[in-house]
Amino acid sequence: MGGACGDKSHVDVTGSEICFRFGFWFSRCVPRADIKAVFARSWPLWYGIGWRSNLRGVIGLIGSYEGVVEVRLKSRRLVWGVFPCDRIAVSLEDPEGFIAAIASLPPAKSG
Prior knowledge:
The termini are far apart. It contains one helix and eight strands; from the N terminus they run ββββββββα. By secondary structure, the chain is mainly β.
């Protein structure tokens, strides 16, 4: 689905931003100053696998129903110029490690 296999789908965390990559169709970096919260969440079967939008703010980058983490943004923006987004849900192999990595970074400074 859009080339969203292992080496083309990942999340990179740096001191200044979190970059999401899901196949050929989704590549987005979010400044840490724009992150409101990060936490584990469920992803029901009926939400589906692949990239998803509920058209109310959630973008899902889902390869598995397990290990899903939500990154909540401070403000809404458009993805692909069409889909509203203020929450990115992503399935991860190490969700606890991802959440800990975000929590261990010093607070991001706003503009």
